[in-house]
């Protein structure tokens, strides 16, 4: 039987012991062997701390976000084989989707967060700058940098893919290398996904390592700067946390443990209401999804005492309709537990529950295409605890399978008290249409819950469900649930980052943070900042505007245009007892007038106003006052764009408005969308003429079969097609891919060298030349480019077919020509 290899210190290594046999949870057949015997864990830890840390921490947050996206796309293309392995763990197709594509989705989510909200630097400035001296020459702020160590990530058996990717999403984005230690059971699925992550070549060397099997003494080697993330039983987690190597070295430890999650049916949710039906459906799903092997599954069903019988009957009928069996069968709605060992453990816990509570439902025992002897199958089991404040077994024992306990309550106070008897849970849910009941219950139970999920008829269609942790929200819980916090959007990165206070002068903090700090030196130049591409803008680039004297007419006109007739702007007789001496200019007029002073009227790289932050007005401006504006580039944010958007970044500009006495009257931060410099040539006829003048008959191509004249005639023909001379009679790209092809025109990705044009001969032979010589061909190309520029000025709405990109308008043809010309000019070393 094949052994699963471990990936440590940059190579695949097989253990040298007998290992742990891994079985198909459905058929009982052996699948693989996991073995870590003989591995040098100390070497693996050092390798991650040195090679892995150096490579990951030197990347920017933005680049690490792009890395996550590339990995997720690579894995998504190979998902079919993961599903085939997932069925062997007892998971149905839906179970597998949650695990496999849910894991990929976490990578996609964190990639998006990074590209929208994190800087293109290896550090992250956290929070505002604090002015800690009277004159502003001494400032303070905080920066976050990757914790200098390695993260050991110990995952549970229930989610072999999501469990790994959920932790890696934050550690990799934070810049911290990791060793992944999945549970042996189901680790053959983790191993397959991990192999592809390494095979992709996207992750830098040392970023991730994999240990499939027993962890051995790996935790003996953790040290200051390292972190341990554990998902599993609270008992095991507490033992690990108290290890001398962890407790004695200030090693960061995050635990996400089992918990007795509850769901509360509201007093209003009687049979016949949408909420009653939603409750039954939600409880059934949480009992049967992954055969109840979810840390977020509903273990305690808390219902009004007068509805216990109704809930028991409705839930029993719903569970009767849940077909159990081989996950490969289309009829199956619930698969098996992950193995016989886990089955025996659940049976042990079920027997403990039987000692104090009544088993009122034991499920349908027929299996589809499977049997109980070979597979680890268990029917859903529903208990009734008729005295939940006296019988504590339901609040102490978790059977990690399709097992839950029904219990009554009288009013909201009791419902919240029962919820809290779990002594700390990952999630609790409330199903009710009574907002007052929901509010009263939720805030009382919140102290013992990491997440509260409220379900009713209004959100049911879009709800993600009680048991689904989301990357943008915190996953974890207090007390029994471990006290840990994972994900939660960008908050999830903080566990892996060191927060450091930075103090210094404005110039020093500007240099360190790469963000302009008020009071730092400004950089003035003749070129208007709005005429610079994103790459050209430097933090500190500044503009001092001319002055503008505010008039009474300005104030009156702005009142009329804006309809803002607040008395301080319009009624001089009402100012007694106010802070104003006379009618005052509107704050938003000052901001508008400032924009009028600092914008550049000439078309340039600035695409649009993207937003406004932190606008404050400090002094009133009256008629007769003269305002001047200082505009300074404060921060640059790289930005990923999709679809038909121009590649761009966001620049934050500090706007300081002063009056004639040099008093600051307004400070704001405006955001502009600034185009990135295109790598493709401009469609400037003079420039094109100069380029093609460098082409001779003797010029050799860097690739392809084209001669110089063939290339120029090919470009000339393309220009004519863009004029509809002749109109292309077809597009060779299928409708399914056409939008993707057209979107690609807007990116800065160059055309591939090995692209075989579909309109060319199948044998790759070139068409006959049309012109007598190269000079005539070049002149024809230039003449037609002159016609192109005139044609689309006269016909701005015109559209013509392209053989590859379909129907293109003026903008798209220009983008296409720029890419296409650049491609062929580079082919012949002309640019």
From TrEMBL:
Keyword match Hydrolase: no
Region ranges (Disordered): 460-484
Pfam families: Aldedh, MaoC_dehydratas
GO molecular function terms listed in the Swiss-Prot or TrEMBL record: oxidoreductase activity, acting on the aldehyde or oxo group of donors, NAD or NADP as acceptor
InterPro entries membership: Ald_DH/histidinol_DH (IPR016161), Ald_DH_C (IPR016163), Ald_DH_N (IPR016162), Aldehyde_DH_dom (IPR015590), HotDog_dom_sf (IPR029069), MaoC-like_dom (IPR002539), PaaN-DH (IPR011966)
Domain Aldehyde dehydrogenase residues, every copy: 12-499
Annotated protein name in UniProt: Bifunctional protein PaaZ
Gene: paaZ
